[in-house]
């Protein structure tokens, strides 16, 4: 596994901040569910932060709003000091292409593409040339310890290997933030520890902010900060 060089320097700033963030779902039956209530969070550049809580606590909703996959009912979200305008679709697309990378519990790899092609895929939308895509993808797969598995389809990889490909894919466009929803949830404990160590190493070596939802105590122990949620609020 090799280190990938980075020119980023540490600066003291909140890379993510939420102010009085709330999310309410209203169903056709008239039922209202308050998923989040007045959430105020500050995450510094380079921090590794875990959102923990039981199912239904609001941690995935909070992650999705920070990742601009969902929008709040009220409140404000700031990324790199800039307020997110959820109505501005081009700006949201730019955030997804340039600033935020995603890692999912179910890996979400494209079945018909091998590992190298899966990592190349996000770069295509940023106009990266094919040769540079392959070079970058090869470097990232080497970084996550899969230099000998680049030509394998997802179906030919173990769960841990698929998650390593997913992490490499999330890094493809050099994001400043990685959001991971239960990244070890589909893995056995030993493989989960390896994925936790990998993510923490990338966080430390490249100063990329990681925000994860998890039930995994190992992942929580790796975090610089743990925010516990219950019934849509942060428990102090």
Automatic annotation (TrEMBL):
Q: Does the keyword ATP-binding apply?
A: yes
Keywords for the protein's UniProt record, in alphabetical order: ATP-binding, Nucleotide-binding, Transport
Task: Enumerate the spans annotated as ABC transporter domain.
Answer: 16-236
Q: Superkingdom of the source?
A: Archaea
* GO annotations of cellular component type: membrane protein complex; plasma membrane
Q: Record's SMART domains? A: AAA (SM00382)
Q: Name one GO molecular function term.
A: ATP binding
Q: Which Pfam families match?
A: ABC_tran (PF00005)
Keyword Signal part of the UniProt annotation:
no
Name assigned to this protein? ABC transporter, ATP-binding protein
């Amino acid at each position: 596994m090799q280190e990938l060089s980075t020119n980023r320097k540490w600066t003291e700033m909140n890379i993510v901040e939420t102010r009085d963030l709330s999310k309410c779902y209203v169903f056709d039956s008239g039922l209202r569910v308050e998923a989040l209530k007045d959430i105020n969070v500050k995450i510094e550049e380079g921090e590794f932060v875990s959102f923990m809580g039981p199912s239904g606590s609001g941690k995935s909703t909070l992650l999705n709003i920070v990742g601009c996959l969902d929008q709040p009912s009220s409140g404000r979200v700031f990324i790199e000091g800039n307020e997110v305008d959820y109505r501005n679709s081009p700006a949201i697309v730019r955030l997804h292409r340039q600033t935020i990378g995603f890692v999912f519990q179910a890996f979400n790899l494209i079945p018909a593409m091998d590992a190298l092609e899966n990592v190349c895929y996000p770069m295509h939308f940023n106009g990266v040339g094919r040769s540079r895509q392959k070079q970058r993808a090869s470097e990232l797969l080497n970084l996550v310890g899969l230099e000998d598995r680049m030509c394998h389809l997802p179906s030919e990889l173990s769960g841990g290997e698929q998650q390593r490909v997913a992490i490499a894919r999330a890094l493809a466009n050099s994001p400043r933030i990685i959001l991971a929803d239960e990244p070890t949830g589909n893995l056995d404990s030993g493989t989960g520890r390896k994925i936790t160590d990998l993510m923490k190493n990338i966080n430390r070596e490249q100063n990329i902010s990681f925000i994860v939802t998890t039930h995994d105590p190992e992942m929580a122990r790796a975090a610089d900060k743990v925010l516990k949620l219950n019934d849509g609020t942060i428990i102090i």
